[in-house]
Amino acid sequence: MSDGDLLPGSRSPESPHERDLLLRRVPEVALVPELRELRFTPERLLPFTGVHPATRIAELADAAYLERLRSALATLEERANEERNGGLRFLSASLRHFVTALPPERHPLIVALYFVSAFDAPEGALDEVARRMDEYENALAPLVVDKSLPPG
């Protein structure tokens, strides 16, 4: 896939490698207009000063927030369909599916929204957001999946 894989007219990913490339673009998705209202305000972040980001994210991303996120991602997916934007459609649908499948502190878009908000990252700072997300992910304990539960 090229750099234009999130632009109107882009095709859907055709291989695991292309899916991985798209997933690396989650920080860009955090900046789309449909998700602007889901960034955390400084007032919401302030009470969590000195608290580990995973704890902050878990507290901030309550049930109401997750429902707003799910709705915003559905709206984003509609726009992607209208634009025939396969890359953005893949990301919005995948990220929407995992809103309920992952704890908020493990959901890559929620983590991206947190870091974009916490560091008031302009578009030019996406590499910095991605770097902080990688550091955050590397510092987390492995995710334990209860295999006795049905998928979904």
Question: Would you mind describing this structure in some detail?
Answer:
The protein is mostly helical. It has one domain (16-139). It contains eight helices and no strands. The protein has helices spanning 16-23, 26-29, 42-45, 53-60, 63-82, 86-101, 108-118, 126-139. Helix 5 runs antiparallel to helix 6 (86-101) and helix 7 (108-118) packs across helix 8 (126-139). The protein is globular and about 45 Å long. The two termini are 29 Å apart.
Largest sheet: none
State the distance separating the first and last CA atoms. Answer: 29 Å
Mean pLDDT: 85
Rg, Å, rounded: 15 Å
Q: Could you say which structural class the secondary elements and strand pairing correspond to? A: mainly alpha
Percent of residues in helices: 55-70%
Low-confidence stretches: none
Give the helices and strands as they follow along the chain.
HHHHHHHH
The total count of helices amounts to 8
What's the β-strand tally?
Answer: 0
Tell me the domain tally.
1
Strand content: under 5%
General shape: globular
Give a summary of the structure in a few sentences.
The protein is mostly helical.
Keywords:
8 helices; single chain; globular; mainly alpha; 0% strand
SSE arrangement:
Blueprint lengths: L15 H8 L2 H4 L12 H4 L7 H8 L2 H20 L3 H16 L6 H11 L7 H14 L13
